[in-house]
Description:
Helix content is 58%, strand content 2%. It is an all-alpha fold. A two-stranded antiparallel sheet has the order 1-2. α2 packs across α6.
Amino acid sequence: xxxxxxxxxxxxSVAAYLPQFRNKAASITALSADVAVEExxxxxxxxxxxxxxTADPNKFCLGLPGATAPLGDFDPLGxxxxxxxxxxxxxxxAEVTHGRVAMLATLGYVVGENFHPFFNGEVTGPAxxxxxxxxxxxxxxxLWLATSILTAELGRANIGWEKPLEAIxxxxxxxxxxxxxxxxxxxxxxxxxxxxxxxxxxxxxxFAEMQTKELNNGRLAMFAAMGxxxxxxxxxxxxF
Length: 240
């Protein structure tokens, strides 16, 4: 009988505290949700705008210029798929640089095999052999040439790339990392500031158009240079 009288009182007391527990639980849940939203917002990175371009991970190749009709977003082997921003920038840096070297090489093959104004006309024959001939005929000039190329490469690295120790630190949390190599965040791939004729457009759209033209000519030149080198290596003869 006593138990029957006490039980309603106990149940009523417990029930009186339940709303407080519910309110506290709801507050904790809301607080956790707010913290989760803040964490999500902090994770979203922001990228600087350079030459009118801002890296957009949702666009093909981060929205960099270079896509041309009819090929459009051409990446059949998926080299840029799921790559972080810094790796796509590094790939574009390599493409631009190799394209420039290939354009100079193509011009050098065509001109160098038909005109011999230097070294008393002693450097002749297939262009594949010209550098070795220069090393033999004018070793000091060859040394100067090699030193100049090394200096230019060190200058390019100093302008566009992070210092190795800093790159290692920043690459720790990056998938597809390359340890020692990372382009500066404010560096546009290929823009080392060398423009003695003032050809670089200041308008972002004009710059993107010129960059696309340079890329397309560089891509064509890479194929052309590769064909010239292989042809001379196989035939042992000049191009023409």
